[in-house]
Structure to design on (204 residues):
């Protein structure tokens, strides 16, 4: 009788140990699964941005690598845009002017045309000067513009085929991190002071 009780005790200990190990494996597996599943925010960040080669308003070839190491405020539009683009570019410029000199120096302001057929380097140079001395204008071939539009998930299409055509396009301002990944996007018509406050909180 005593011998049977002694034999059962090790079996109980083994059973408890096995149950605990299985439970621990289950918890750890769940933790790993949750940790590796990207959130909707992470997915959107991964979708915005990428490689490109374009020409700046000084007629210099630039790539995405030239902007690594600084934050980037980037807007896609075109110089013949009657209202939306000028408004958003002025908001961008005003927001940067609200920043401290130290924070403003951390940011590249970039305007990418979605209308390269009309927006030559000379046109871009004259246009960006209206908004801010540090605003960088980028243009390129149709193929190069298509590449960066795809990288940044930008929609843009001619409204018609007339000589004075308008271009329907996405009107977001993207704040990109130093590594070229998305930090935040701003909608059309943002308040520049609030925009500056958000930028300050994100780049600290």
């Amino acid at each position: 009788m005593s011998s049977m009780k002694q034999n059962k005790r090790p079996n109980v200990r083994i059973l408890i140990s096995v149950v605990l190990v299985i439970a621990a494996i289950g918890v750890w597996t769940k933790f790993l699964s949750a940790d590796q599943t990207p959130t909707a925010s992470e997915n959107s960040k991964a979708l915005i941005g990428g490689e490109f080669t374009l020409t700046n308003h000084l007629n210099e070839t630039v790539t995405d690598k030239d902007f690594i190491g600084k934050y980037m405020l980037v807007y896609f539009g075109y110089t013949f845009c009657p209202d939306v683009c000028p408004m958003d570019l002025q908001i961008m410029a005003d927001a940067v002017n609200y920043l401290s000199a130290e924070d403003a120096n951390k940011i590249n302001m970039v305007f990418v045309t979605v209308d390269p057929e009309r927006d030559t380097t000379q046109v871009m140079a004259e246009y960006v000067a209206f908004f801010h001395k540090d605003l960088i204008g980028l243009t390129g071939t149709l193929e190069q513009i298509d590449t960066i539009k795809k990288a940044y998930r930008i929609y843009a299409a001619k409204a018609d085929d007339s000589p004075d055509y308008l271009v329907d396009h996405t009107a977001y301002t993207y704040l990109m991190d130093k590594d070229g990944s998305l930090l935040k996007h701003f909608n059309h018509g943002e308040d520049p002071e609030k925009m500056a406050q958000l930028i300050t909180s994100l780049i600290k």
